[in-house]
Amino acid sequence: MPNYDFKQLSPHDFEVLSRDLIQARDQVFLESFKSGKDDGIDFRHASATGAIIVQCKHYAESGLARLLRDLTSEAGKVAKLRPTRYILVTSVGLSPHNKTAIQNMFGIPLATGDILGKDDLNNLLSVHSDVENRHFKLWLASKAVLDRALHNASVVQSEFEVERVYSDIKRYVSSDAYPRAQNMLSNDHVAIISGPPGVGKTTLAKMLLYYFTSEGYEPISILTDFQTGRERFHQGRKQIFYFDDFIGATFLGERATAFTRNEDRAILDFIELIKGSPNARLVMTTREHILMQAIATSEKLKHSDLIGSRCVLEIRDYSLGQRAEILYNHVYFSDLPENYRTVLLTNRFYHEIVKHKKFNPRLIEWLSTFRRVKDVGPEQYADFVRGLLANPAEIWRHAYEHQISSAAHSLLLALYSVGGRIGPLTLERLFQNLHGLRAQRYGFATSPADWRSALAELNGSFIRPGVVIEVIDPSVLDMLNMVVLDDVPNALDMIEGAIRFEQVRRIWNFARADAPAVMRYLMAESDRVAVAFERLLHAPSYLKVSGGITRIDDSIETRVSLLLQVAEVLSSASLSKVAVASVEKLIADWNETPADIGDGVELLAKIESSSVQFNTAKPETRKRIIFALAASAREGCTSDEFHDLLKTIRPEEVDPPLHQLLEAAARNYRESHFRVELGECQSEVEYSTLERGLAAIAGFTNVDFEGPLHAVEEAQAEFIERQEAYADQQADDWKEMRHEQLDTDKTIDDLFDSLRCS
To answer: Using an 8 Å Cβ cutoff, are 719 and 688 in contact?
Structure first.
């Protein structure tokens, strides 16, 4: 038998559950009445033999004493109605003695079986499991499900914060997008949740993730790129991967014109990997306009079935009643003081909110969180809410400019400079460097506690701490974009205060793509910008960790490529000299340390298009780079890297020394690296990509790849056979959910009336 305490349900949720259970038990249809001051009636069944009246008392938090006190005043109302049968349902646990006491209060016959307490409801739920399944908030927010989810998350030390999502479930209102996304995960294993800012994409994704985690899946949060997902993927293990704002993390979105090398392919390869695994699921979110820009930019995405995996969540997916429930749940389960709640109820102000054209769940969360509105008195609360709905972006901007300290500004700008997400130790270093520079520049005082105090100040309002520290919502980054656009010296502050090359690259790309005023300012300060780029050119790219090294910043090849662009745009003679010298040094270094071939190919293209003058003619520089990259390939590379290199080489450039080097690289790949790469293939797309790469290498170098090509063909056939066998296994059972529609002014009024009684 289940053991729910029903505390996760609002009074409205509890009434609907009670109605469904009684209808299932007694095989009657119950007519609904007001949710508020009901004169003794919540539901009624009328027939020729008389009337059945049902009253619900959701006192799980307040307990038996208040229940008995309130029933004393209710007994007279019920007696006046003279029902033939009265049913009382409560979330309070009742003993036989308690039931007898309740019977004695009423002047009408009241059967013990019609007094339903907590244990009786759990018993009915065990008999009527279909009712339990329909009320997803009941079982999803239960202690048993929480314990399972916590266990499965702890197994993989997941960054997925189970308890935080658990606490959010009671406020969640399922829209039509939930079953759509769930069906996608059931049938195709992948769901891309897209939509406008604030519509509830991340919340929907996390509800799905929580459900799957409770069903035995290991949750894996992907924080930066799909390589993390590939490293943690295990064929045959039940896993669900979650990547929030996945396009924003791999594509520069509104701020750029293209993906960097092969990132679009990485997206498609990982999706194909998950689709080909019977036990894996993938949930991703993105803003719709960024997704459309990415597809327009990338030929690979354009010709893929990415749109087919997309579940668009829009405000119109929420009916008027669902909007009302979103507001109701947030207020009911909030810490808003009574005088603020009264403002929402006065003159039915809640109607203005739920019918507003800019209504979205993010704004509702904001206006119902006391921490965020406590500086606004109850007298100004209605005007504050109206202003919030009229101009949602101002919720962050107003707080940024008027409510947080200079240290908090520095922390947010530091986080912005790395894309809004990074580990706490690194962020502290970024903060200290930038904060010190800004304090000196703008004359504000600092203290050793600034980092700690800024972190505490922003926690829960602008940032979300954890294994990584990240902005609490993508719109925080949108707000910081506007801060930089409006106050352009911030861009130079971040460039001069940077300790990683990634930071200056991000600010530069933002200025180039979407901020002409920022670019003009940087050009006016070109000498200072040039100094910062030169200083960071040789900042560490790797960090030693247990078991090896990990990349923490851009490759030297990427840095030199950008340096060429910056030198050209700024017309900086000093930076041009540094760029040319860096290219020369890089070519020399490749003799000792193999190049990153993909980034080297990108650098070669940048040199070709650059107006920067080199010490030697460009054809000679090009020849030296190609030879160095071929030498690096000989030391070991992937088929993708080899293929990218070959596509760059023109037939007339292949002299005997280069051809000999490429042949040696091909033989080395065939003998030492092919089997490893073949063993890593985990989807049909990856097998096909490998096959194309091998054919290209064989055709260019004349090295025999007949054996490897045959091995790929056999392995792919076996893989397809295994997948078909998996597909024949029994499909997962999916719970159907039903949502009560409350789409009239009257039913919305009835719903909010219960807030007056809570």
So the answer is: no
Could you tell me where the beta strands, DSSP code E, fall in 146-209?
190-195
Alpha carbons 35 and 425: distance in angstroms, whole number: 51
DSSP states of 251-308: S-GGG-SS--TTHHHHHHHHHHHHHT-TTEEEEEEEEHHHHHHHHHH-HHHHTSSGGG
Give pLDDT, residue 151: 61
**Burial class (CB within 10 angstroms; exposed 0-12, middle 13-18, buried 19+) of 90:** buried
Q: What are phi and psi of 242, to 5 degrees?
A: -135, 125
Cβ atoms within 10 Å of 267's Cβ, excluding its own: 26
Q: Which pLDDT value is given to residue 256?
A: 40
Domain ranges in the chain are: 11-132, 141-316, 318-392, 636-727
CA 527-529-535 angle, to 5 degrees, is: 100
3 state SS of 143 = helix
From CA 556, how far away is CA 562, in angstroms rounded?
10
Per-residue pLDDT, 119: 93
The DSSP output letter for 223 is: -
- What is the Cα–Cα distance from 283 to 190, expressed in whole angstroms? 6
Residue 437's pLDDT is 97
**Spatial CA neighbour of 438 closest among 463, 409, 418:** 409
Give the three-state DSSP class for 107. Answer: coil
Tell me what pLDDT residue 124 has. Answer: 94
Q: What is the pLDDT of residues 456-504, one digit of tens each?
A: 888 877 888 777 898 887 778 888 999 999 999 999 999 999 999 999 9
Report which secondary-structure segment, H or E, holds 544: strand 542-545
What pLDDT is attached to residue 40?
Answer: 54
Structural class in CATH, domain 141-316: alpha beta
Render pLDDT for 589-634 as a digit per residue (tens, 0 to 9): 888 888 888 888 888 888 888 888 876 777 888 898 999 999 999 9
The amino acid present at 346, given as its one-letter code, is T
- Parallel/antiparallel/unpaired status of strands 463-464 and 469-471: antiparallel
Cβ contact 163:150 at 8 Å:
yes
- C-alpha 643/C-alpha 307 separation (Å) is 28
B/e letters for 378-394, b = 16+ CB within 10 Å, e = fewer, are eeebbebbeebbeebee
- Say which residues have a Cβ less than 8 Å from residue 55's Cβ, sequence separation at least 6: 38, 40, 41, 42, 74, 78, 86, 87, 88, 89
In DSSP notation, 396-423 reads HHHHHHHTS-HHHHHHHHHHHTTTSEE-
Neighbours of 315 (CB within 10 A): 17
For the chain, list residues with pLDDT below 70: 33-41, 48-49, 136, 140-162, 248-262, 547, 615, 723-743, 757-758
Q: Check: CB of residue 256 under 8 Å from CB of residue 509.
A: yes
Separation CA 407–CA 444 (nearest Å): 10
Rounded to whole angstroms, how far apart are CA atoms 244 and 283?
8
- Classify domain 11-132 at the CATH topology level: Trna Endonuclease; Chain: A, domain 1 (3.40.1350)
Cα of 388 vs its chain's centroid, Å: 24
Residue type for position 476? V
pLDDT of 351 reads 94
pLDDT reported for residue 152: 58
CB atoms under 10 Å from CB of 97, counted, come to 8
Cα–Cα distance for residue pair 120/118, rounded to 1 Å: 5
